[in-house]
Specification:
Elements: H1 2-16, H2 20-26, H3 31-38, H4 46-56, H5 60-63, H6 91-108, H7 115-137, H8 150-173, H9 192-198, H10 203-220
Helix pairs in contact: 2-3, 6-7, 6-10, 7-8
């Protein structure tokens, strides 16, 4: 908790453009203690966490690094969100669908001719690969349906995904490289707060997906003894 909390606490104060001394006074602690909290040298008690969350207008989950949404709407770390469940009662499907739609909309509004295409291409390869895995596991599936044999397709998809990643990153930056022409790209601010304001319906799904993947890859990078 310490690193997430201390980093967020310091960023919120800077965002509010107030001095550490003023914030300490408002939060009813000494400046030295607040400095320890912001530098990760001390961990606060619950009462301070609640006080700080109220002071900065965020949820405790956001302050503790358990949610990427300031209002805590993206589920706490380690759990899958259930954003407004659709009629088919499959929240994971709803979450992924909305997240992808949001990404495609951001690309479409960027003013770029190439970014929407490169994003769609990258997603298409991922969908193709996922379908092939399901197809191979299904009964009576014929390998001849696809031009690439089952023992080759995964590596070929990985190679294409890596190229697509380079092209997507290049297109997003507006630079000319890897077959992408240079152009002006106007991406909007993509902070959790900005996303929630601009996309009130879709943002919780994307933020929850980001939090879930963040938890997963962070755990992969931890020493074996620290993994949950």
């Amino acid at each position: 908790m310490a690193s997430d909390f201390s980093r967020t606490l310091a960023l919120l104060r800077r965002e509010k453009k107030i001095s550490q001394r003023a914030a300490a006074t408002d939060l009813q602690v000494s400046q030295a203690l607040l400095s320890h909290y912001e530098n990760g040298l001390r961990e606060p008690g619950l009462s301070f966490v609640v006080r700080a969350a109220d002071y900065y207008g965020v949820s405790c989950d956001y302050l503790l690094g358990r949610s990427m949404a300031r209002d805590g709407s993206a589920v706490p770390a380690g759990r899958m969100a259930e954003p407004a469940a659709p009629a088919d009662s499959r929240p994971e499907r709803h979450m992924v669908t909305q997240a992808v739609e949001l990404l495609l909309d951001i690309a479409a509004r960027s003013g770029s001719r190439q970014l929407p295409h490169e994003l769609a291409s990258y997603l298409s390869v991922s969908v193709y690969k996922a379908f092939r895995f399901l197809y191979m596991a299904a009964p009576e599936s014929l390998d001849a349906v696809f031009r690439n044999k089952s023992e080759h397709f995964s590596a070929l998809c990985d190679a294409q995904l890596k190229l697509s990643e380079l092209r997507l990153q290049t297109a997003a930056s507006g630079k000319g490289q890897f077959g992408i022409e240079p152009e002006e790209v106007r991406l909007p601010p993509l902070s959790p707060a900005e996303l929630a304001e601009r996309y009130p319906e879709e943002a919780p799904s994307l933020l929850t997906l980001l939090q879930s993947v963040t938890d997963t890859i962070t755990t992969l990078g931890e020493p074996a003894g620290r993994k949950r």
